[in-house]
From TrEMBL:
Keywords for this protein: ATP-binding, Nucleotide-binding, Transport
Catalytic activity of the protein: a quaternary ammonium(out) + ATP + H2O = a quaternary ammonium(in) + ADP + phosphate + H(+)
One Pfam family hit: ABC_tran
Organism in which the protein naturally occurs: Cohnella phaseoli
Top EC class of this enzyme: translocase
Name under which the protein is recorded: Carnitine transport ATP-binding protein OpuCA
ABC transporter domain mapped to chain residues: 11-245
E.C. numbers: 7.6.2.9
InterPro entries reported in the protein's UniProt record: AAA+_ATPase, ABC_SmlMolc_Importer, ABC_transporter-like_ATP-bd, ABC_transporter-like_CS, P-loop_NTPase
Amino acid sequence: MNGASRERPLLEIKDVAKRYESHQALGGVSLDMRKGEIISVLGPSGCGKSTLLQLIAGLALPDGGEILLEGAVISSSRGMQPPEKRGVNMVFQDYALWPHLSVFDNIAYGLKNRRMDRADIRKHVGELLEMLQLVGLEKRLPPQLSGGQQQRVAIARALATQPRLLLLDEPLSNLDMRLRIEMRTEMAYLFRHLGTSVFHVTHDPEEAFAMADRLLIMRSGAVDQIGTPADCYALPASRWAASLLGAINRIEGTIVRTARGVGLRSGSIVIEGVGAEAFAEGSEAELLFRPDDIVFHGSGEAEITVAAETAAAYEGGRRQGDDRTTFGLTVRHSTFEGKRWRIVANTDAGQKLYLLVERQLPPGTPITVSLPRSAAYIYDKSQERG
Ligand code: ADP
């Protein structure tokens, strides 16, 4: 990567802005993408993902900034290169196949336009049929295919002309869950194997994790965080990124001084060592964490009796280990999720938390849980919610 990282980026998005009447859909987005890289743009509906994709594809004109592909400006407010001249292909959410053309002819379409020799077309399409497990289906029309097969044809068609950049717009959102998991795994393998440069847009964090070398997390038309999936998961840059990446549990509280330092207090729960030192005493903050980071220790009086090595540190209904905080919750309800039950439980201050437990717990059951400090992210409460 050392040499490659000094090379000119394949795609340079420089402070790109786009407004629709009074609505600022993109407010200055910048990103450099390497050749062969897979970038996944992640964000909820309406955050500007498709707008960014359309600007790269040449389907819309930016109001500000510019986009360069292999060093040449392809879009700016002054004008743009026509989409068909960019060497950029797109796979759409609804596949957009030619319904009256066979699988073979759909895939061969761009090659015929380029007047490729017929024998070469047959060879090239044959390789793509093989690669995308479509052998035997070449004579069928798109309406005679399943959703997953149609999506494979759309990918084969987009790869056929060996684009400089492949754009994927929510490519799996019309497929059922099992197929989505299968397809995202296969696509991640295929694009890496071929060295395809991919700019992928999705609202699904799991799809983005499975596909991306780097994530671009968007919020209200702006970049919230850029980083590898692992880095973004471990250290979300904002409360927005944290909740998007699964940290849906929230404890709101006040920053207090404790015997051992500074912590966040909410009702009887005091959580120390989570970065509360960065906040002024008395200020309002919130702690975000994921359901699967809460450790369930037991329910009812008998089970709540803590293990001997930590019992010494138990005081006043809560236990402060060096690396975790233990506290009590009351179960509100449980839903079955296959391997585990998702428990909804309240803190004594009435805040609702989710956790995953291997058995069902009746409403009203007192439980003891702990939260590892490293799993909690603290944010200023005044930080705007998305
Ligand atoms: P996403 O792909 O993340 O769902 P979009 O890029 O489609 O978001 O849209 C970003 C914002 O711009 C949304 O608020 C949307 O309503 C608005 N928008 C998108 N396209 C248009 C358009 N053609 N005219 C007016 N507003 C639009």
